[in-house]
Amino acid sequence: MQEQEYSVRRARTSDVPRIQTLVAPLVQERILLGKESVVFYEAVQEFRVVEDTAGELIGVGALHVMWEDLGEVRTLAVTADWLGRGVGHALLARLEADARELGLSRLFCLTFEVPFFTRHGFTDMGSETVDPLVYAELVRSHDEGVAEFLDLARVKPNTLGNTRMVKRLG
Known about the structure:
Elements: E1 6-10, H1 16-28, H2 37-42, E2 47-52, E3 57-67, E4 70-78, H3 87-102, E5 106-111, H4 114-119, E6 123-124, H5 132-138, H6 144-150, H7 156-159, E7 163-168
Parallel strand pairs: 4-5
Antiparallel strand pairs: 1-2, 2-3, 3-4, 5-7, 6-7
């Protein structure tokens, strides 16, 4: 039996500098939005990381709760030399399990990686919206991810070329 090449675990505060290093190339390519260190520390409990057998960080992803039934997959990234080896799949599976454990029934993502998310059951949201009462609550949020989900005009410059996708959890 082949030994597992990597493992997924909850992120720790000591991982934040390594998370920032891992996502830096994607921020430079404008695939991910840059975040200040304080934002990573404030949200560290939302993150899962993947380490190889040598303890190197090779992947990261976060689950952010947006509403009673809705969460967002954020900052899903894998180092270039580990792409295509199941790391992203393992991370997304863990985040989906976390979402189910929290009682969420839908996951949202804003992504350039449409084929990856499509393979994992996400579909283009198109003009899908939420119930007007929920919208009225969500629009009060200061979170940029919520604004992206709602497709608010103020976030349009940051979302150009991205696709808003959603998955209903079974």
